[in-house]
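Is nicotinamide-adenine-dinucleotide placement plausible here? Inputs below.
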Amino acid sequence: MARVDLDGNAIKPMTICMIGAGGFIGSHLCEKLMSDTSHTVLAVDVYNDKIKHLLEPESLPWSGRIQFHRLNIKNDSRLEGLIKCSDLTINLAAICTPADYNTRPLDTIYSNFIDALPVVKYCLENNKRLIHFSTCEVYGKTIGSFLPKDSPLCQDPAYYILKEDASPCIFGSVEKQRWSYACAKQLIERLIYAEGAENGLEFTIVRPFNWIGPRMDFIPGIDGPSEGVPRVLACFSNNLLRREPLKLVDGGESQRTFIYIKDAIEAVLLMIENPARASGHIFNVGNPNNEVTVRQLVEMMTKVYSKVSGEDAIQTPTVDVSSKEFYGEGYDDSDKRIPDMTIINKQLGWNPKTSLWDLLESTLTYQHRTYAEAIKQAIAKPSAN
Ligand code: NAD
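Reply from A.M.:
I modeled the complex. Tokens:
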């Protein structure tokens, strides 16, 4: 049966140039596009480990609809050609791990702003649609975080719910280099928005709110550098797998909402296939019902991991560290991030489905299945030598 868009029109197969397709979000988006649609993907990245299962063997049912192009968008003239022969470009490429924002601020700014410029330019010059991935970090801190802790206004959603078309972007001082990422993302958003307003660029901007699931980042010492610091899910998974205490930065008081990657990918597919409803918009994509403090997240992950691994939790499941110790000088944080869902609901009728417990159960089952044996061997190795 022909697939139809939200307005009942048949969806025509398109060619999508997906930059950063080899990353966490890209790998899930490629999977979805291959299994549920007839679109073609030109997958651009410097790595392809996370999409290898979609590229080989050639007998796969979608073979011929996905091509991998190993290139670095910083310096490769093939990029324009790929954008030119596609109907839509999706840009996911970025340095986006908090441990890098204050320690590699230049790479962070170049990656999130400068390197995205040619992508915008080629889309504009060739009259192509662009879906650009920004971040919920562009909101920075909430207005509520500046109120006294006992102020009744702290309970008022107007002071903490983040709305695409109304909330301000509140960052720390320039010395707090943590904000280099958010600021670069904000500037590329403003540039894309201005290209839309002044020159007619057809764009959609996505602001992900903590999307998590299988294949997120790497486990240090197993499929990434031992000294690497991945994002929070992989950091905590690594501690659980190694039976080490989970490190709680500054007491784990920050609040976050987590969304299952598969729910979020449904939202992106709606944007891809409903251009008339998605173009010109900025969309929060998150799950406001899954809010926890990082401390609560750690407690839940510890319980879920015990369930999926069959191992009791260790005696001291957490240890406190300061942000300076963990992330280094120049770190800072957002207090709380709850997305407003009005715009995405109205334009695309989308809502997230998966509870935090369920998404952690699927994700940690995957982590255990994928890494537990390799970690056991890595731990056993030194004594075997
Ligand atoms: P990721 O790091 O897993 O994927 C990014 C991919 O881009 C990587 O595979 C990387 O190799 C590739 N890349 C980076 N620079 C490149 C270059 N110069 N040339 C070619 N490829 C390059 O990250 P992700 O979680 O999949 O995030 C994708 C996008 O979504 C990013 O823009 C990120 O800022 C944004 N985002 C994600 C989240 C989340 O919850 N996962 C939250 C906020 C924002």
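Short version: Residues 20, 22-26, 45-47, 72-74, 92-94, 96, 111, 115, 133, 135, 208, 210-211 surround nicotinamide-adenine-dinucleotide (CB under 6 Å).
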